[in-house]
Design goal:
The chain is an alpha+beta fold. Helices cover about 25% and strands about 40% of the residues. The strands form three sheets. Strands 1, 2, 3, 4, 5, 6 and 7 form a seven-stranded mixed β-sheet that branches. Strand 6 and strand 7 form a beta hairpin. Helix 1 packs across helix 2. The longest helix is centred in the first third of the chain and has 17 residues. The two termini are about 45 Å apart.
Length: about 450
């Protein structure tokens, strides 16, 4: 990995090479050690150290973007020249907003040395070995344990400089029976002593052992208790479909013409809070704008959405600092924090007369963005609850549900939350009990 001064030097080379052309440069440097295991044995230990630059050269009504991992001065100058050449060939489009120029410098570190000391390659192997020794046939363990460090540096021809450095450890554990029954759990840590490796193995093992002799249920509407992984699967797409200024302007968002209205149950409050200790905590976005905290949903009422420079200019507001650096998405809230409830997940289960417990979903896809209608399959632990007790495993089913309906039928939100790794950064979400949640198909696969 490169130091802050080295990354800043790369940015300076690119800015100098651009001459009079406005330019934005994002330098990303990361180092990750990854230990994978399968069939209850460690089978791979790899290390990757990667640095690349994303260079965006701008005209008045067009921009050109080139990414390079040739990080010598010559390589960077060649990438800038390519971006300028491409820019000259592009047709004009909408007016490009002016580059961010204030504040001049933003720098932050969320690096924990205790975490770095805890997860060397040797320590990852030793800690995994202790857990794998406890898995016995016909069950086997699959998954990974990783430790990574990353640094982002950003600069432009308006003179700003941005820097952020962090580290984290992640584990994901799948315990599978020879008949295909499985259980899943995960853990994320940003400080020493936080990663719950043993607990993740224990939860996945318990789920796999309970996931035997599944029963078939008819399609229809059920009360469900969604564990945090399942809640995040729904929230991830809800966030992408709804909380972007660009989607609001394109009228593809389910919040179109509804800001200020109550759209979800009053129990639900969602923030985008980069300062939360469970978030990744980058204080700026990929355009260099300072990141703001957003009150997305306040007791069910839609309050705010995210803007980047382009969508903000169209709306006549400043960027909220949520550019993801990808024009197709615009601005995206990435530090999702859901306000917890008053009961633990176990208490919610104990008070449920009849319901279904969902570990997580997969193959999730949007069906109708304006209705926040999603579909996906249950996975790695789907169970029947009767009189407060998990009584049987259930064959996996397909859910098809509008989040405008589901999040209006929340009966309870758990007081215990989990930090989960998202596509960029982390989220912090609880479990939820939702009534009248629709399952529209069966997988046809017996566990």
């Amino acid at each position: 990995m490169f130091s802050k001064s080295e990354l800043y030097q790369m940015i300076d080379w690119a800015v100098a090479a651009a001459g009079q052309h406005p330019i934005l440069v994002l330098a990303s440097s990361s180092a990750e050690g990854l230990t994978r295991f399968a069939n209850s044995e460690i089978h791979q230990n790899v290390f990757e150290d990667v640095t690349d630059l994303r260079i965006t050269v701008m005209g008045k009504q067009k921009k050109s973007q080139v990414t390079t991992n040739k990080i010598t001065r010559q390589g960077i100058e060649q990438a800038v020249a390519e971006a300028i050449e491409n820019l000259n060939l592009l047709p004009e489009g909408e007016e490009i907003p002016a580059l961010v120029n204030q504040p001049a410098v933003m720098e932050m570190e969320r690096f924990n040395q205790a975490l770095a000391d805890e997860f060397s390659a040797e320590q990852r192997a030793l800690r995994l070995g202790e857990q794998l020794d406890q898995i016995h046939l016909p069950y086997k363990a699959y998954g990974q344990l990783s430790y990574g460090e990353s640094a982002l540096a950003l600069g432009n021809s308006a003179g700003i400089r941005r820097y952020f450095r962090s580290n984290s450890a992640n584990c994901s554990v799948l315990i599978s029976h020879e008949n295909g029954a499985s259980g899943y759990a995960s853990s994320v840590a940003t400080r020493g002593g936080e990663l719950e490796l043993a607990a993740a193995f224990r939860r996945a093992d318990q789920k796999a052992q309970a996931n035997q002799a599944p029963i078939d249920l008819d399609i229809g509407a059920y009360t469900v208790i969604l564990e945090p992984n399942a809640v995040f699967d729904l929230l991830m797409y809800t966030t992408l479909l709804g909380f972007s200024g660009k989607s609001l302007q394109q009228k593809s968002s389910f919040l179109t013409d509804r800001l200020g209205e109550k759209i979800f149950d009053e129990k639900l409050s969602i923030k985008d809070d980069w300062e939360n200790e469970n978030a990744l905590g980058i204080p700026f976005d990929f355009e260099g704008s300072p990141r703001q905290k957003l009150n997305l949903i306040d007791q069910g009422i839609a309050r705010e959405v995210a803007y980047d420079l382009a969508s903000g200019a169209k709306a006549g507001v400043a960027s909220t600092g949520h550019s993801a650096g990808m024009d197709m998405f615009g601005a995206i809230p990435i530090n999702i924090v859901v306000t917890p409830g008053e009961q633990t997940l176990q208490q919610i289960i104990a008070e449920t007369k009849q319901g279904l417990l969902v570990t997580r979903f997969h193959y999730m896809n949007p069906v109708n963005p304006r209705q926040a209608l999603l579909t996906g399959l249950t996975r790695d632990g789907f169970y029947q609850i009767e009189n407060g007790v998990v009584t049987a495993a259930v064959n996996n089913m397909r859910m098809t549900e509008s989040m405008l309906k589901a999040f209006n039928q929340i009966e309870a939100i758990s007081s215990d939350c989990e930090r989960l790794s998202a596509f960029v950064g982390n989220v912090y979400v609880p479990a939820m009990k939702i009534n009248q949640f629709h399952f529209t198909g069966k997988t046809g696969v017996k566990k």
